[in-house]
Amino acid sequence: MASNDDGSPGLFHTMGESLLGMAETAGGMGVLFGRILARLARLRFDGAEFMRSMYKMGVKSIPIVIVTALFTGGIMVIQAAPIVKRYGAQGLLGWGAGFGTLREIGPLLTALMLSGRVGANNTAELGTMVVTEQIDALRALAIDPISFLIAPRFLAFILTLFFSTLYADALALLGAAYAGKGLLDVEPSVFYNGLTSGLLSFSDVGVGLIKSVVFGIIMALASCHFGLAVKGGAPGVGRAVNATVVASAAGIFVLDYFVSFGIS
Amino acid sequence: MSSAGSADQGAQDGEAPPQELGLVGEIGATALDLFDGARGMYSVLVRTLYYTAYGRREPGSTVHYMYEIGNKSLFFLTVVMGFIGMILVYQAGVQAKRVIPDLTLLGATYLELLIRDLAASIGALMLATRVGAGIAAEIGSMVVTEQTDALRMCAADPIDYLIKPRFFASIVMTTALIIWSAAVAFTSGMLTAYSFFEVAPRTFCNLSLIDKGDLIVGLSKCVAYGAAIPIVSGYCGLSTFGGSEGVGWATTRAVVNSSLAVIILNFFISGAGIFLFP
Fold first, then answer.
1. What is the distance between the alpha carbons of residues A13 and A43, in angstroms, rounded to a whole number?
2. What's the pLDDT band for A79 if we cut at 50, 70, 90?
3. How many domains does the structure of chain B reveal?
4. Smallest CA–CA separation between A85 and chain B, in Å?
5. In A, which residues are within 8 Å of B137 by CB distance?
6. What is the domain extent for residue B154?
7. A44: which DSSP letter?
8. Is A78's CB within 8 Å of B271's CB?
9. What is d(CA A135, CA A150) in angstroms, rounded to the nearest whole number?
């Protein structure tokens, strides 16, 4: 049944269409990834644009990372509080919060916040350039848009996410230590003892950082791909930003699952 | 006086004046920006509530937005929450085994956490990106193409026409979607526990730790997030200025601000929950 009686597409038609759409997106992102890697491998990307992107993506995101990380640390302790009280395991609070933050919540929430702050912003910028034909102007001047615009942003995005995660981990643990003091009367020194007593190792930090790099790759690809694929004026830019955040969020969670199982 | 001229230019373009402000000036400018934003959102919230009481009744458009916000997010949310459930139970199981070898309470603790916090917060973060970006992009494009000005010319407040139906639709559908996503995350967690740690589903489905407080905290989070997302992103959409770049900016701000709103509301509601239902 290709269509309903009133001529609107039927269920299978819609399913097939969305499947083809997904395949097109995945293919487009794969091709873009290959092109970016080819430029990066030969070090053919614009250094000034890279520094500008690092400033715009990294330095400008610091406030939002600080707020998110401190609140996240507090929330971790609030949620752990009933369990800690039930078992009287004050000494394990540092371990529990540290483990959860370093392995999962730190990389995940940093990635989600930066997907809004950096990924969506990048899509909007590239989309505006496409709509106002600036990319075509670059091509007309024989400047490769990928090595001039895309590859530097790609690299800057991944580095931003990596360093922000490192930073957010530390701040979230700080927030958790003081929330523990306020809510559960666990001294910060007991909390830090729980962190360093040997139940956690460098591998916990390392797994989180590997995750942040993987998330960075998928988010940078999604934001550049949808930005370059904008069609149709201002509403098109809005739709592209929407598609970027949805694809980034879905990609982050799906990859989180595979990374968690792959290296645990 | 060329600097004053350029400052005027900047003010006319709606940008910050370009001269150096110094540290105190920067802090002051940021504080003023935050204050302006908070006042704008408060005004949108108050006007939405006003029109809820005295505005037009249009069930048709509320139902339309319920479909847009709810049904169209269902697939996305199901995929994300399914994966989240598997990750959480797997990580928790691996860690818990190091300390206590007995995993019989894994399911009960997981369900309590899910209802109290994780289902609502992670689900709402996903909705903040999906729904918030959609609302801001739609309203932002209307602002840029002067459709909201046309509404005002017809003596219709855009908040009554555009934000109020989305506000209702979002509160109802966020609650429904979060209950669904808790069910999805619990089921995928149960399957993970069964296949990796051999916890029988019958042991995993343990409701003994759930009490009234958990349900009240979880449901009030649903309502708070559902109300916050359309207000914050509607405000960002309505304050759009300047072409397609402006729409992009508005969408970005909507995603960032509604995610932040979710995280901050979570902190306060969880804190209140701890004191009210210890």
1. 45
2. confident
3. 1
4. 10
5. 235, 237-239, 241-242
6. 40-276
7. -
8. yes
9. 11
